[in-house]
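Entries read sequence, tokenised fold; example below:

***
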Amino acid sequence: MQITKNLKNFFQKTKKRRLLVVDDDARLRDLLKKFLTENNFNVDVANDATSAGTQLAQNSYDLMLLDVMMPGQTGLSFMTSIRESDNPRHRYLPILLLTALGEAEERIQGLESGADDYLSKPFEPRELILRIEKLIERCHPAPLSNQDIMSFGSMTFDVFKGILENAQGEIIHLTPAELDLLQIFAKQPRISLSREDIVGASGVNLSPRTVDVQITRLRKKIEADPREPTYLRTVRHKGYALWPD
């Protein structure tokens, strides 16, 4: 398994990230660990939700690759428990789902449960690296600058650095899909974008159907009342538009 020279250069210049791979398929676990280790990651593995929970309690990770279909507690159930955790290190951990399920409903369910992205088996190793790179890049943004700031009531958003802050200066966590959407809208304020426009501009794995799921999640973070949105508005027969202060 080989990746491009550019990708190798990227990982050589950045911190060596630590990943947790959770899958009940021993052969796939071993292949993933070998491949990811060869490409400059520290990799731990777990064969089910119980052992993964133990690993999370003992270590800090930059990203988790999580299989959906596992014996005992499923990947989706385990992910839901992580997202409801009192520990922010777990609650905001980037999660890339690995699934053999190709139907749209299963993908939507995964995103609704808190996944940041998903990849269907079988997958190309190079695509996996690209997805991991994208997630880490979006979940570990650069420090806040004083330029290109947009306001939503008491919240401020640095459009190009990708950081959302509340009135107390606390950073509000955005998943890669949420951040991608907010940046797309913020770069075209007050312009109506269809679902197809958003999918075309997106840097993460979205479909027209999953756009609505991510819009709902994003509204919960920037709107005082997500059911009556002030900033991220629905434009009838057209799509959505962002109206900042």
Summary: Residues 1-14, 142-147 have pLDDT under 50 and may be disordered.
